[in-house]
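Form 7-S
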Amino acid sequence: MICVRKCSSDDLTLLAEYNKRLIEDEKSDNPMDPAQLRVRMKRFLETDYEAYLFESDGIAIGYALVKTSCSPLYLRQFFIDRPYRRRHFGEQAFRRLLETLKTDRIDVEVLVWNEPALGFWRKMGFEERSLYLRRERPAFHKESGPGQEKI
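Output:
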């Protein structure tokens, strides 16, 4: 059975380690190291985010980071450690998280190339509502100015 525990500052190091693994697994371009991620996580917890640790038989197996000041709630990060995947721990943890948060409405963003995560969230009943796009600033010719992009 999965237990959900609200995190405190005592959990920051573990949360940062899990966050680094999440970044690796989803192939994010976030360059932050665990020390930087710890500082960022501390800032999240000092604002309108709450972190929750998932435990099975007293062993930490993952976490979630939830923005609680919006409606619906926003699930910024959700991670199950690698040895516990494909064993239904993610499904159990997500359901227990919703029970803990006392909600059925929650938003999540997924990187479009992260097929395993897309499949998981669809299985959990999520439907696509938007597509978030990014344009990286292109290089300019040295002799050109803004608006005259190198093609």
